[in-house]
């Protein structure tokens, strides 16, 4: 994978920021010497100093933003206005990528006084380079800059460009989706324990089953329904379990969860 051009500044060196930079370094997207991390938290700065000593670390954002061609904002939504004030007049002329949940492009353009902004919805599996991210670009973002965004988030999983109006739905599926899958894993393990399995074995089987099923869908390209039908023999154990899932409304529960999350994401975006 080709390197991105110029220096990169990450504002917010927490878990998501760490995942992004470590993924980029592992994929060869950027060199550690070209990265600056801005964070006020002394523990976070210490982590960077110990884990990636070649990365520059500071608690003052202005110079770091001014010297970067690409800036990733990974702070909480409430902190963006303060960050914008500290770096007033410095945002134009560089690509600014925000992973702040719910903060719309129009808000970013207003507070940063720049049209070269990108809004990204990543998810927590980015921490293990298995993320699913979607991003939307403002009109001032060039194709080359959009390609930079794809390289960054492609280094920690998959990344797709979408219209901003779809990001609330993305939040419902991939942004919050890991939490739904964690519940499914927990429930599978609980079912195993109820059927007599030791807890560690039940959890191991549940985790590997979810991982393997997802990989099967990904690598075969088969529709999930076709793969499901292949497991469900006539009059067998699986179809009995599937009938129980349908009786208890698993499909409706998942659909409603995605829709509820998307609606909440939209409401939060309107409040910013």
Structure, described:
The structure is a single chain. The radius of gyration is 21 Å and the shape is elongated. By secondary structure, it is of the alpha/beta class. The chain starts with 7 loop residues before the first strand and ends with a helix. The model has no long low-confidence stretch (mean pLDDT 94). The chain is 54% helix and 13% strand. Helix 5 links the parallel strand 5 and strand 6. The chain contains 12 helices and 8 strands. The protein has an 8-stranded mixed β-sheet with strand order 3-2-1-4-5-6-7-8, with helices on both faces.
The share of residues in extended strands comes to 5-15%
What is the share of helical residues? Answer: 40-55%
Q: What's the story with the biggest beta sheet?
A: 8 strands, mixed
Distance N to C terminus: 36 Å
Order of helices and strands: EHEHEHEHEHEEHEHHHHHH
Strand order of the largest sheet: 3-2-1-4-5-6-7-8
Uncertain stretches: none
Q: Can you give the mean pLDDT?
A: 94
What is the count of DSSP helices, taking H or I runs of 4+ residues? 12
């Amino acid at each position: 994978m080709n390197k991105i051009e110029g220096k990169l500044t990450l504002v917010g060196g927490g878990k998501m920021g760490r995942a992004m930079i470590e993924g980029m370094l592992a994929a060869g997207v950027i060199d550690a010497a070209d990265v600056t991390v801005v964070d006020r938290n002394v523990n976070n700065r210490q982590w960077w100093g110990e884990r990636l000593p070649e990365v520059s670390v500071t608690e003052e954002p202005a110079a770091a933003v001014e010297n970067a061609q690409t800036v990733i904002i990974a702070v909480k939504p409430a902190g963006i206005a303060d960050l914008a004030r500290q770096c007033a007049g410095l945002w134009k002329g560089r690509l600014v990528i925000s992973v702040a949940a719910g903060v719309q492009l129009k808000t970013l353009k207003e507070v940063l006084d720049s049209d070269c902004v990108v809004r990204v919805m990543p998810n927590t599996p980015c921490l293990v380079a298995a993320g699913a991210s979607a991003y939307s670009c403002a009109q001032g973002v060039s194709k080359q800059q959009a390609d930079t965004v794809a390289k960054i988030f492609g280094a920690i999983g998959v990344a797709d460009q979408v219209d901003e109006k779809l990001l609330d739905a993305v939040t419902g599926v991939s942004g919050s989706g890991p939490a739904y899958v964690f519940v499914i894993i927990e429930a599978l393990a609980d079912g195993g324990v109820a059927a007599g399995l030791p807890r560690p074995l039940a959890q191991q089987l549940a985790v590997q089953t979810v991982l393997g099923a997802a990989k099967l869908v990904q690598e075969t390209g088969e529709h999930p329904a076709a793969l499901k039908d292949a497991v469900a023999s006539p009059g067998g154990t699986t179809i009995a379990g599937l009938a129980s899932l349908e009786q208890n409304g698993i499909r409706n529960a998942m659909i409603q969860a995605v829709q509820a999350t998307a609606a909440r994401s939209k409401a939060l975006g309107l409040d910013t």
